[in-house]
């Protein structure tokens, strides 16, 4: 059911997708969907969190594969952009969810999910900061510097849902980020 709903949300958007379509595409009854998820918002939240986790895991895997923190940060940026290039419609869905009323109605799910990744990134960065290999800074500043620019580009390209090539932007961000995080 989640796979069918994901395809529908990504291809048609949240507003244009109905529970009846999800039911028809997945073979799961409307009643079962409502029982497990409450409503269409519940289905969308589940998919948003799942796909956002896949995105973050790609970044985390790339970062942890490197032993140098600047190389890790660069690898994370490159992974974020690769995800954008490989899954532009999915990125559009994730970005549109981030600013949606239905996600805001879901309570603290979005902020809790974001906090979970921030804890991971600061746990990754802390030994490098302690060793002087990354500058010490407030976690919010570190997160904003690391993912703010790439998040903005993902937002801009994702909302336009265009095939623009982000490669030149990525190279500028890599150079800017390396300078900003040089201890």
Comma- or semicolon-separated keywords:
single chain, 183 residues, mainly alpha, 10 helices, 79% helix, 0% strand
Structural notes for this entry:
It is a single chain. 79% of the residues lie in helices and 0% in strands. The protein is built from ten helices and no strands. The chain has helices at 2-12, 19-26, 30-37, 40-64, 69-86, 88-98, 101-104, 109-130, 139-160, 167-181. The radius of gyration is 18 Å and the shape is elongated. 29% of the residues are buried. The model has no long low-confidence stretch (mean pLDDT 88).
Quick synopsis:
By secondary structure, the protein is mostly helical. The chain has helices spanning 2-12, 19-26, 30-37, 40-64, 69-86, 88-98, 101-104, 109-130, 139-160, 167-181.
